[in-house]
Amino acid sequence: MTITNGEYDGRLAVAAAQAGAAVVRDLYGRHLDRYEKSAGDFATAADLAAERAVLDVLRAARPEDAVTAEESGRTGAAGARRRWLVDPLCGTLNYAVQTMLVGVNVALWADSEVTAAATADPFAGEVFWTDGERAWVRRDGDDTELTPAAGSALVDVNLDPPFPNAPGFRAARLLADPGFTERFRPRVISSTLAVAWVAAGRRAAYVTDGDLTDSVHFAAGIALCRAAGCTVTGLYGEPLHTGAGGLIAAADADTHAALLKMVENQTSPAS
Question: pTM score, two decimals?
Answer without folding.
Answer: 0.94
